[in-house]
Design brief:
By secondary structure, this protein is mainly alpha-helical. The chain has eight helices and four strands, in the order αβαααβαβααβα. The strands form two sheets. It has a two-stranded parallel ribbon. It is globular, with a radius of gyration of 16 Å. It binds adenosine-5'-triphosphate, (3R,4S,5R)-3,4,5-trihydroxycyclohex-1-ENE-1-carboxylic acid and magnesium ion (MG). Monomer. One of its GO terms (biological process) is chorismate biosynthetic process. Its EC number is 2.7.1.71.
Length: 182
């Protein structure tokens, strides 16, 4: 969901592992030379989704190891759900609409939230998308209200338990985000 922490936690996770970090939204903005909000206003949501699909298809082909933060709406298209699930290990950072509203109530950049009642919009997005996020994810992490470093450690522990990240790649508690070995 928008505001779940994909960009923030993703960047810290990559730094902790010494892996490359790529944010699909940033990649899109670099290609179009506009903010996503401006592009939405000028070309509409479907044009953005077409571009997003093209970018996701390319980014999942980058040679690992990388941490990829997707846009919140990338799960809306079946092609993206498949590309992500088949080519990567997907973590769903779950948060309630109420918690997301607390984080984003002053946001001016997320086009879908520039409405009279953003909490209501977040509830609608959650209702429409939660099943897609679950279908796409290999792991679900409840973000609740931990600090970002704690959240990153929760993700690392989950990946380590699943054998995605070897034990010796996990930084010691308190050392986040620090490691850069590659
Ligand atoms: N676990 C967390 N606890 C508290 N605040 C958080 C947490 N994760 C992210 N935030 C804050 O919420 C805001 C949104 O986070 P972020 O930009 O990482 O979300 P996102 O998932 O990338 O959203 P989008 O899909 O719109 O790109 C930021 O201000 C960030 O600092
Ligand atoms: O949740 C969404 O649909 C979006 C989230 C952002 O990451 C951006 O990709 C864009 O603002 C759309
Ligand atoms: Mg983001």
């Amino acid at each position: 969901m928008p505001g779940a922490g994909k960009s923030t936690a993703g960047r810290h996770l990559a730094a902790a592992l010494g892996w490359r970090f790529v944010d699909a939204d940033v990649e899109i903005e670099q290609r179009i030379g506009l903010s996503i909000r401006a592009y939405f206003e000028r070309e509409g949501e479907q044009a953005f989704r077409d571009l997003e699909q093209q970018v996701i298809a390319e980014l999942v082909q980058i040679r690992p190891p990388i941490v990829l933060a997707t846009g919140g709406g990338s799960v809306l298209r079946e092609a993206n759900r498949r590309a992500l699930k088949e080519n990567s290990v997907v973590v769903y950072l779950r948060a309630s609409p109420e918690e997301l509203f607390r984080r984003l109530r002053h946001d001016t950049q997320r086009p879908l939230l520039q409405v009279a009642d953003p909490l209501r919009k977040l509830r609608e997005l959650y209702r429409d998308r939660d099943a897609f996020y679950r279908e796409t994810a290999h792991f679900v992490i409840e973000t609740g209200r931990p600090s970002v470093p704690t959240l990153v450690n929760m993700i690392l522990m989950q990946l380590e338990l699943a054998g995605v990240v070897p034990d010796d790649e996990r930084p010691l508690p308190g050392s986040l985000p620090s490691r850069s070995r590659r």
